[in-house]
Design goal:
Layout lengths: L2 H5 L1 E10 L8 E6 L7 H11 L4 E5 L8 E6 L4 E2 L3 H17 L7 E6 L2 E10 L2 E8 L5 E5 L2 H7 L7 E2 L6 E4 L3 E7 L2 H6 L4 H7 L8 E6 L5 E8 L4 E4 L3 H14 L5 E9 L7 E10 L2 E21 L5 E4 L2
Parallel strand pairs: 2-3, 4-6, 12-13, 14-16
Antiparallel strand pairs: 1-2, 1-18, 3-4, 4-5, 6-7, 7-8, 8-18, 9-11, 10-12, 11-12, 13-14, 14-15, 16-17, 17-18, 18-19
Length: about 325
């Protein structure tokens, strides 16, 4: 650990539930605000301690005109980009900066492993209540996976996998996922991860997560679940980066050469943490040119994290 950490130091953190307006819904996130001299090992240890699907660390920006450098850790690894960490971190940071007397901002630019992530802040009555990110990378479509292997990953039958629009496909706009359409809402409800199959099928394709979706009756409506037991997340309540890759893929596959589409993704319902993700995609001359993911976030806890011999202390906002 660093010299400061060895001596013992207090770091401020805030937890928020993201892609929800209700406490104890959505996807929990921990945001560590004072991260500038933490080592990568310390950040990973803190993320493992929180044991949320992701924890973010806010550091001073390196580039002129950028808001902050944001590093994102799962309980196991650092990742270059993720959805709910960007939305939640933007809400926490905006409220923190305004409480310090800084003028309200309309947008942020975060520096992340996958590149620059522009963030548009969402307000209600002047208060920041959510954010919309722009995915840092253009859509990349990678390996295809057979319906049989995708079904095995999800403990389903091959007939439960829809292949009329696309085969189970690895795709990314900053973080890769295997994306599989499910033939019915009931099959999506029955899905559960099969760890040995995940271990065999996913790493060779460059991902460790499966985003399974069913297309609802409304235009742009998806019902989704995401499983990543290889990354210590049996099921994720809301996965903005996976939703972004999925709607980019579906937009790319559409027949229109030019399109501006809106999406509504419900996730977490089947695990008791309902989440709502809003998406937008832009397509020009047959190619997806921009992907946006947005939603709300609500604060849950704030407190201090003691690095060194001290214990962790928290206080609640609720």
């Amino acid at each position: 650990m660093s010299e400061r950490a060895q001596a013992g130091s207090s770091r401020r953190y805030v937890t928020v539930d993201v892609f929800t307006r209700q406490v104890f819904g959505g996807n929990p996130l921990a945001v560590v605000l004072d991260a500038q001299d933490l080592t990568m090992i310390e950040m990973q240890a803190i993320a493992t301690e929180f044991n949320y699907s992701e924890t973010t660390f806010v550091l001073p920006a390196r580039g002129r005109g950028h808001t902050a450098q944001v590093r994102i850790f799962t309980p196991r690894i650092e990742v270059p980009f993720a959805g709910h960490p960007n939305v939640g971190t933007a809400v926490v940071l905006a409220r923190h900066l305004e409480a310090q007397g800084q003028p309200p901002a309309e947008q942020f630019i975060f520096e992340e492993g996958a590149g620059l992530v522009p963030i548009r802040l969402l307000r209600e009555g002047g208060r920041v209540i959510g954010a919309e990110l722009t995915a840092p990378e253009r859509l990349q479509v990678r390996a295809s996976i057979t319906a049989e292997e995708a079904a095995a990953c999800l403990s389903l039958d091959p007939a439960d996998i829809g292949t009329s629009r696309h085969p189970p496909q690895v795709a990314t706009v900053g973080l890769a996922f295997m994306i599989a359409e499910i033939a019915s809402r009931g099959a999506l409800r029955r899905a559960k991860p099969n760890l040995p199959v995940h271990e065999r099928v996913l790493p060779p394709t460059g991902t460790d997560g499966v985003f399974a979706y069913f297309r609802g009756s409304g235009e742009g409506e998806l019902h989704a679940r995401m499983f990543a037991p290889l990354d210590a997340t049996v099921e994720d309540p809301a996965t903005g980066s996976a939703a972004a890759a999925a709607i980019a893929l579906l937009t790319q596959l559409g027949r229109e050469a030019d399109a501006d589409l809106s999406w509504r993704i419900e996730q977490g319902v089947d695990m008791g943490r309902p989440s709502l993700i809003f998406g937008r995609t832009e397509k020009r001359a047959g190619a997806v040119t921009a992907v946006y993911i947005g939603g709300h976030a609500v604060p849950v806890m704030h407190g201090s994290l003691q690095i060194g011999p001290q214990a962790i202390g928290t206080s609640c906002w609720i």
